[in-house]
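Project standup — Tuesday

K.O.: blocked on the structure for the chain from last sprint. Re-posting the sequence here as requested.
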Amino acid sequence: MQFSPLLLTRQKLPSYRIDDIPGTVRRELAKSGFAQRVAPGAPVAIGVGSRGIANIDIIVHSVVAWWKEQGAKPFLFPAMGSHGAATAHGQTAVLAKYGITEAAMGCPIRSSLQVVDLGATPEGIEVVMDKTAYDSGAVMMCSRVKWHTDFEGNLESGLFKMMAIGLGKFAGAQRYHTHGYRLGLEAVIRGVGRQVIASGKILGGLAIMEDGNHQTGHLEAVPAAIMERREEELLVQVKGWMPRIPLKSLDLLIVNQLGKNISGAGMDPKVINRTVYGDYNPWPYAPRVGRVFLREMHPLSYGNAVGLGMADIVNSRVVKQMKKKPTYVNGLTSGAMASIRIPVHFPTDRECVEQIWRTVGVMDPLKLQIGWIRNSQDLTLMAFSESLRPELETNPMVEILGRAKELEYDDQGNLVNWLA
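H.V.: unblocked you, prediction finished:
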């Protein structure tokens, strides 16, 4: 079956890359006032999450080194809710996959699911906090500030969310998402974050921001006293860096990779224009996408297939790569049940493409408008149907790389990956 040839393109996104990450971390922490609140020789707990953040190993190592220079005794702890199958060992293993080990960081990693009670918010949310971190007496976080996958607000993903979902461990993540169903997740994150700050245990955090090229674009030490306001300002800034598919509409979007390291939802809903609750095309700033075809799972997703339910069709290898425990634990904790449903699947890419295209209302396969991306985080190298050339050529940020080519399949019937 013949489809329109595809054009390989490169999207030229603005770069805000920081070249000297260790130096920037040291300067930010030096002016933060954090060290003045910690007695010499005191333990400092540093929370690290489960996202695939660029240079996270360098950033965290730099934070640890700075605290050692101040005479403190830093240690790391996983701040990641239900990820890693909600086990202490699993969460340590997630950090290790990002190069964050005791040997590499030069400090202990203390992983536990035990929590302490911090009382209730005015809305009646019982707040808890990682016991290991609480017992240290001084806590800071390393967290990326970005848009949330599931909602729009003035405070989305970042330091406040880590104080809630991350520091709350599995017990907190369960109850906060339950309250979020009733109150909205932004309200829960704010309320819980304020309660955690009121405990007096939080020094602040290192806010990490990435540009559209998935490069470290901004690092800022944010004291607890100004965290809520400052994080709102940083969110506005980073939303302006958000990469998007540079078109108005696609009939079929092919996505190479799903992964928790790529997005908390596996595929960023605000890129593929879905929600984790099963809604189609809710985001007005994303292209209208008729169908999504998912080809495989990223190895750093450690078998967690949350997000596969947003695809309309998947290669059967995605289903085989899925590990039920981390997928079910994460999906049940977040309450996003549609995101863990198993879609229609076939054993080859060829079958998937040839079966799904008829469902979008296009009678002629040559007129099907196809887009192809590596994953929802990397929107630099992409491919699009030749019929979309006029729209692509009017976009100064898009460069067309050579002539259009037909989709190619290997001997197993799987797409020859142009985007590798």
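K.O.: great, moving the ticket to review. The first helix runs from residue 21 to 30. The domain at 21-239 is CATH 3.40.50.11440 (Rossmann fold).
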